[in-house]
Amino acid sequence: MHSGFPSHSLQAKDLVLHLIALNTPMSGNMRGVRGADLACYQQAREANFRTTFRAFLSSHVQDLNKVVHNGDRDTPVVNLRGERLFDSWSDIFEQKQIND
C-alpha cells in the first residue's frame, strides 16, 4: 500500500474490494495467516483505509477463495487507484479468456 493517496472514508459497506500489495517484500516468516493479516491491517490504516484488509494467502487453515464473505463475492475488485482488476471476487478463481 502507498500512503500518499487520498484518505478513504468509513463506509458501512464498500462498493468495491481492494487488492493492494504491501509496501515492502516480506520474508515469508510472518507467523502464519494472522501475521500476514496484521501487516495488511497496519498498512491499510497507515493509508487511511478503515475497512477490513486480509492477506491474499492460503494455508492449511484458510482457503484463498474463502477470504471474502459470500455476500461480497460478486463485488468488483480494484487496485489502490480504483482501477478495475476483476469484475468480481469470484472471477479471480474462474478461467476466462482475456480480451485485449
TrEMBL record:
Collagenase NC10/endostatin domain: which residues?
17-96
- Supply the Pfam families for this chain: Endostatin (PF06482)
**Matching SUPFAM superfamilies:** C-type lectin-like
Q: What is this protein called?
A: Endostatin domain-containing protein
Organism field: Onchocerca flexuosa
